[in-house]
DNA sequence: GTAGATTAGTTGTTGCATCTTACTAAACAG
DNA sequence: CTGTTTAGTAAGATGCAACAACTAATCTAC
């Protein structure tokens, strides 16, 4: 490691520490947290303020001594743009460094019927619109750190092409390459990531530095593994894809063609089928059917369905926890609202099979994050280069 | 990070790079590999040589240009001591920085019948003996970097106490604390780790920086997860304990009391039972029975046994790979010799269930490491502080 | 056999990031 | 108004790695 990397590392450390702190820190507090000295922190913070990445609040008197100058990530000085493509449309959103949403827009579009090129055009339009709206109040257009798209499928981490997205009917679509060609995105950093992996970033804001297993029901079932605040990548970028873990060898047929996958039991489609609902029923109806016996009237059927789902998830989670030796599980997406019902069954199954129960309780938590999880996560991911290497961003922006 | 840490980091980088290089590197080669400049490497290497951590070989002419001075980890300048406790005895071994064994000794002891205190006494005696033998040729006693014990059970990473070791009949034994009290080990760094997790370190020497899943059959079945050359810890230090992954809900009864654990299918005990051998039969007999139809004469039974074992391992491995998104599996311990037989069944099962097959082939490899795997791994782990912070060791030794 | 090319490694200097020490600033307590 | 406490700054010292230029040792070519 070279000495210039040291500075970059410490800049990043300061910025991240400020970002993840529950409340604004003073320079002195930042020095204490990072282990750097006060003069060093002062210099680094000065640079971050100069670049518009950090802002000072009004001095705050707390007890005796000189009042502290609270520091916080600057708001409204730059844009990170998130995109989300689903079967029914494209959404777009611009945030600043704090994650505050400055503008949003969306377009309805049947992504299954329409060719990918139409979707990519829509993305271009939305990015352009959102850039305009977000910069409307500012004297000059805000600089864009990057654009990241959330896609419901497997993405090649090397070039951001979509290897397969069953929900969109896509396979081998060079999404990022095409998006980069759009005139509206000329010169911008463009990324793409799986929607589940991006969702977890939003969750991570609530749990900085923690380790947990994240399970998200959306159309299928996906998730992520978070170790010490970092999302595990894996060799092909799909670590934590729990949907196709085997929960019962030779069991139910999954749409992937295999047998006994978790997804065959708890995808939105499988849940509706098990709950006796039509494929067009809403999530609310589904939750209602599972949560209240009155939903379908079939009390026995309900508890049986809940048992099947709970045991399937429990088995998958227990296996994941045995491999990773973690003790926190976060349920999100359509698994969060039904978490209250299936939680106990999951806990029971996990307690039965997970080794970690011998060391302490395993907590199954429900995410209370907002609905546009993946979209926010995408914007958050677009910001990542700034957090990782603030010095490079400063040099680029200047 | 402070600037003094930078130097420590670079010292460590140089030492590790030299250690993991397949053949000696010159200063210039080391500079190229580490990304540091030649002058910087020269300075760092000078310090490492001065401290007896690196040695120069005779200059070597290779083609045109000035001959290089090959550098390699110094041999015979310090001691790392490994211990291994099994049901039948205690083994001990001293290596230098290169991993070369300088001395070894063992004691037969029925660790199940004898109280832990007897085992700890034996450890003390063996360490003392091994230190003497290893330093016999040297003009002065060699400094000991540390002692690490391999134990067949779950270890508290905080204090090195044995939480449970079914094979020894131990539970809640403050092993490290007691061992540290022995006069023979006064002043030494003492560590303890699970034997499977230490075994993988020996494997890692062959695969520096790689990522793989490591499965080791010993008495039970354990393993480890290696991500980028680092062994995953987990919250309680037992990540990668694959033995109790569920491979068939409600399946065979495991000695842990649960049902359907991998270990219930492929522990040495379970294998013997399935192969129709007595509990006292040797590993050779077992391999023979599985490898050759002539072993027991029951050809049908054999292929059925192999199928059951292979599918059990395959299911567990596929699930682990789905969580981690890796594509290499290494079989070790008693799984290595039978690997040729069960390998195809495992591959087949994994190919059927693992998502990563869609991106490329998954390789199931057999470890060809020596038998005293865990013991060597223990010594290797005792060395770790020197590799991680050579500067501190130099300061301590001086 | 001498000049040139090539690779290895060292020397001295420079630049840069952090640390140390000592200071000023701004509040409160008595 | 003086002492105490906490925040933040200034100036100089320290220490590390980078850079450029050098020496060292070998081979090749004419």
Helix content of chain A: 40-55%
Oligomer: homodimer
CATH-defined architecture of the largest domain in chain A = 2-Layer Sandwich
- Chains forming the largest contact: A-B, 52 and 52 residues
Q: Kindly identify the CATH topology of the largest domain in chain A.
A: Nucleotidyltransferase, domain 5
Order of helices and strands of chain A: HHHEEEEEHEEEEHEHEEEHHHHEHEHH
Total separate domains of chain A? 3
Q: Main beta sheet of chain A, described?
A: 5 strands, mixed
Structural class of chain A: alpha/beta
| Strand residue content of chain A | 15-25%
Kindly state the number of beta strands of chain A. Answer: 15
Record the SSE blueprint.
2 copies of one chain form a homodimer.
Chain A (H helix, E strand, L loop, with lengths): L2 H18 L6 H8 L3 H13 L3 E3 L14 E3 L5 E8 L2 E7 L5 E8 L7 H20 L8 E8 L2 E2 L6 E4 L4 E4 L1 H7 L8 E5 H12 L5 E6 L3 E7 L2 E2 L31 H4 L1 H8 L7 H9 L7 H26 L3 E6 L5 H15 L9 E4 L6 H16 L1 H8 L1
Parallel strand pairs in A: 3-6, 6-10, 11-14, 14-15
Antiparallel strand pairs in A: 1-2, 3-4, 4-5, 7-8, 8-9, 11-12, 12-13
The structure holds a DNA duplex (30 and 30 nucleotides).
Protein name (chains A, B): ROK family transcriptional regulator
InterPro entries (chains A, B): ATPase_NBD (IPR043129), ROK (IPR000600), Tscrpt_reg_IclR_N (IPR005471), WH-like_DNA-bd_sf (IPR036388), WH_DNA-bd_sf (IPR036390)
Pfam families (chains A, B): HTH_IclR, ROK
